[in-house]
Design brief:
The protein is mainly beta and 164 residues long. The chain has no helices and ten strands. The strands form four sheets. It has a four-stranded antiparallel beta sheet with strand order 5-6-7-8, with no helix packed on it. A two-stranded antiparallel ribbon has the order 1-2.
Length: 164
């Protein structure tokens, strides 16, 4: 059987996406108390905008529980999508520049990891975005420049940090 490869973005960093706590910025960065880190260097809105990573790096697709019933994925209950839950663990490595594009930001900010819940169609294999959840890194004193990441043989995510 021959398949045509195609690309479908779940989100772009900086997009506002749904999470279990409401809407969040994909790749958004947070301080140790869980508050958004803001960039006031160049913005139309008072108070700036939340800083987000422009460099997603390590990613693992991890199988979730198999669904035997239809799963509603951002659709009305009358037209649910049927499929299997898959999780994408996404590491965000760095921020290239501030919003004004005037100051390099590499290595100057704590970074993030997110778990994206996806619904995989049982026949086509298509992955449909469901929700985005930030991983709270405060209990381990934050995360700095996460780079390589991979799925382990135990269906878990392995992560690394580089540099200092």
């Amino acid at each position: 059987m021959r398949h045509t490869l195609r690309h479908h973005a779940w989100f772009t960093t900086g997009d506002v996406v749904p999470s279990s706590s409401g809407m969040v910025v994909a790749g958004g960065l947070y301080d140790k108390l869980g508050g958004p880190i803001m960039d006031t260097s160049f913005t139309m809105a008072a108070g700036g905008r939340q800083i987000f990573s422009d460099c997603p790096d390590g990613l693992s697709l991890i199988a979730g529980p198999t669904q035997s019933t239809a799963v509603s994925v951002g659709r009305s209950a009358s037209s649910p999508a049927a499929g299997n839950v898959v999780y994408a663990v996404v590491q965000f490595e760095y921020v290239t520049m501030n919003a004004a594009r005037a100051v390099g930001m590499y290595g100057k900010l704590p970074m993030a990891i997110a778990v994206v819940t996806l619904n995989q169609h049982p026949v086509t294999g298509d992955l449909e975005f469901v929700k985005y959840e930030n991983v709270d890194m405060a209990p381990v004193n934050g995360l700095w420049i996460p780079c390589a990441g991979a799925r382990s043989p135990w269906n878990t995510h392995l992560s690394s940090e580089e540099c200092e």
